[in-house]
From TrEMBL:
Necessary cofactors: Co(2+); NAD(+)
GO molecular function, one term: 3-dehydroquinate synthase activity
Source domain of life: Bacteria
Pfam short name (any one): DHQ_synthase
Alphabetized UniProt keyword annotations: Cobalt, Lyase, Metal-binding, NAD, Nucleotide-binding, Zinc
Gene designation: aroB
Database matches in Gene3D superfamilies: 3.40.50.1970, Dehydroquinate synthase-like - alpha domain
CDD domains found in the cross-reference section: DHQS
InterPro entries: Dehydroquinate_synthase, DHQ_synth_AroB, DHQ_synth_fam, DHQS/DOIS_N, DHQS_C
Claim: Glycoprotein is one of the keywords in the record: no
NCBIfam families (alphabetical): aroB (TIGR01357)
Organism, as annotated: Winogradskyella echinorum
Span of domain 3-dehydroquinate synthase N-terminal: 63-175
Entry protein name: 3-dehydroquinate synthase
Length: 357
């Protein structure tokens, strides 16, 4: 697969990842190399990565953080910043983020702010990070249970997508990443959506091409609108309600936390319903979307009390302006519509729609 040029970086795939990474190290000659991993990627991915990393005489230090969305916090950033300082990282140091979306988001933020910015490279190891966090330079951490409230947009030096790391993932993490791929089809390419929802016609060898196609779609959107002033907003389809649902389940001890993709799948179903009620999305396409998503994602119980509290979380959504919640909806599969205002009454109807599926 050919590498994909983004606005300020390049996404490399499989064998070329290590060729390009090692060439970068030879050319740039960083003062030190730091590798950020979590407890999972430390054991499952780091040994394989180190075997192929050619650092020469450059000192390599590994920093480990706990795994999981609940550790995507400023407190963890403090620990990483302090570790960089203790290991005498300077402005010519390189930070390599080896992990899923939590590691790449947090690591990118740490690199972008340490000494006002050092170079970083993302090596995503989860499907979600490969197709979503890999492109666009969005970095950041959560503020309590509120998703990605603190961060910057700053692309790394490169992204390396080695799909062999997917062999380390449990099934639910693969499914979680698949939600973002479905989203790419819904907002950009009806044929891609159709392919993803008919995977019985494909085999595992097709996965690399599907990942590549998702990166192509995200890159086209991000290149046209790097700072999310217009077109890039379409990437938030399913995320207005999805993030609120994810945050609610994360912060409530009596709830089982949802993976990102599990929450986004619910958000896409509900926002497709709202699209049918307020935009041009027809009932037939709404049914196609519902069937396509429910092929992969099981229903989650959200009771009436949960619904009101989830709606209260919408006021923290980053797409809001002047206190108004803005949604991305669909006029059709592949035809998104941004900056849509939706009443709380219609959101409650969407919860009823989801419950009845």
């Amino acid at each position: 697969m050919n590498s994909i040029s983004t606005k300020n970086a390049v996404v490399h795939f499989n064998a070329s990842v290590y060729t390009e990474l090692n060439n970068y190290i030879i050319t740039k000659n960083p003062s030190k190399i730091f590798i950020l991993v979590d407890t999972n990627t430390h054991d499952l991915c780091l040994p394989q990565f180190l075997e192929r990393l050619e650092s020469g005489d450059i000192i390599v230090e590994v920093m480990e953080m706990p795994n999981g969305e609940d550790h995507k916090t400023i407190d963890i950033c403090m620990g990483v910043w302090e570790a960089l300082s203790e290991y005498n990282a300077d402005r010519k140091s390189l930070l390599i983020n080896l992990g899923g979306g939590v590691v790449t988001d947090l690591g990118g933020f740490v690199a972008s702010t340490y000494m006002r910015g050092i170079a970083y490279i993302n090596i995503p190891t989860s499907l979600l990070a490969m197709v979503d966090a890999s492109v666009g330079g969005k970095t950041g951490v959560d503020l309590g249970a509120l998703k990605n409230q603190v961060g910057v947009i700053n692309e790394g030096e490169m992204v390396g997508v080695d799909t062999s790391f997917l062999n380390t993932l449990p099934q639910n993490e693969m499914v979680s990443g698949f939600a973002e791929m479905l989203k790419h089809g819904l907002i950009y390419d009806k044929d891609y959506w159709h392919t993803l929802t008919h995977l019985e016609n494909l085999d595992i060898s097709d996965l690399d091409k599907l990942i590549y196609d998702s990166v192509i779609i995200k890159n086209k959107v991000v290149t046209d609108d790097p700072t999310e002033q217009g077109l890039r907003k379409i990437l938030n389809f399913g995320h207005t309600l999805g993030h609120a649902i994810e945050s609610y389940f994360l912060e409530n001890a009596d709830k089982t936390p949802l993976l990102h993709g599990e929450a986004i799948a619910i958000g896409m179903l509900m926002e497709a319903f709202i699209s049918n009620k307020t935009c041009d999305l027809g009932i037939e396409e709404l049914n196609v979307i519902s069937e396509g998503i429910l092929k992969t994602f099981a229903k989650v119980d959200i009771n009436k009390q949960d619904q009101e509290l989830i709606i209260n979380l919408l006021k923290h959504d980053k797409k809001n302006s002047h206190g108004i919640v803005k949604f991305v909806l669909l006029d059709a599969i592949g035809k998104p519509k941004i900056d849509c205002v939706v009443s709380n009454e219609l959101i409650l109807e969407a919860f009823d729609f989801y419950a009845a599926l």
